[in-house]
Amino acid sequence: MKRALLALLFLSGCATSGYGHLPADQQADVHRIETYMNGVTGMRASFNQIGPDEGHSSGRFVYMPGHLRLDYVTPHIMELVAGDGHLVLDDMDSGAVTHLSLKRNPLGLLLHHPIRFDRDIQVTDVRRGQGSLQISVAKANNPSQGLLTLQFSDIDGKLSLMGLQGVDARQNRFSVSLNSVEEGVAFTPTVFTPPGG
Predict the structure, then answer these.
(1) pLDDT at residue 15 above 50?
(2) pLDDT in tens, 38-57
(3) Is there a contact between 59 and 73 (Cβ–Cβ < 8 Å)?
(4) What's the CA gap between 50 and 13, in Å, rounded?
(5) Please, are residues 174 and 165 in contact by the beta-carbon 8 Å criterion?
(6) Does residue 192 belong to any structural domain of this protein?
(7) Element (H, E) at 9
(8) Is residue 195 part of a domain?
(9) Which of 32, 108, 149, 157 makes an SS bond possible with 165, Cβ 3.0 to 4.6 Å?
(10) Is there a contact between 138 and 147 (Cβ–Cβ < 8 Å)?
């Protein structure tokens, strides 16, 4: 993550978009990730999250290209729905409903549809590990607005999303790890209807 942050600071001075600047093997990895993410018809998992204040939370993660939903169970019941450029968080404990634009939020980089890591998105880092692959991306025209890292298992050439890490413009960080991931899950459109929508 430190290397990705340094790349973010370096690239904020030059507007390199896409991933054509990467070595051929990394370009191939980025293309694999694009193909995988756009092919996800529906994903469900349990998640654990560490927030900017180092607070821990957990619940259920639901994703399909362009849409995300998090149903928090701990520390208390909350519902987050993101898509169409907006994020809505309903805190059942306090009754507060928060509306945010995804323009300056790292999650916005995940919720383009189709996902393409070129044009207005810049790939800042690609890393391979034993049975793992991760990619870090930012906005090409303003990388300092946020960085998103997608983490995958990569077993026998098969990718599976295993986690997200983000850093926003104020250097607030979050990480989400996924467990018991199910793919190919069918959801009704109402699953991604924002609270109060």
Answers:
(1) no
(2) 999 999 999 999 988 888 99
(3) yes
(4) 30
(5) yes
(6) no
(7) helix 2-11
(8) no
(9) 149
(10) yes
Owning domain of residue 62: 2-6+23-183
SS3 at position 109: helix
Q: What token pair was written down for 123?
A: 């790939």
Written as six digits, the tokens of 58 are 């957990």
pLDDT at 161 over 70: yes
Q: How many Cβ atoms are within 10 Å of 49's Cβ, its own excluded?
A: 19
57-90 residue pLDDT tens: 999 999 999 999 999 999 999 999 999 999 999 9
Out of 10-14, 86-90, 192-196, pick the least confident. 10-14
In a domain, 11, yes or no: no
31 domain residue, yes or no: yes
75 φ/ψ angles, rounded to the nearest 5 degrees? -75, -15
Give the CATH number, domain containing residue 125.
2.50.20.10
Indicate the DSSP class of residue 52: T
Q: Report the C-alpha gap between 52 and 146 in whole angstroms.
A: 14
The C-alpha angle with vertex 161 and arms to 98 and 47, in degrees rounded to 5, equals 50
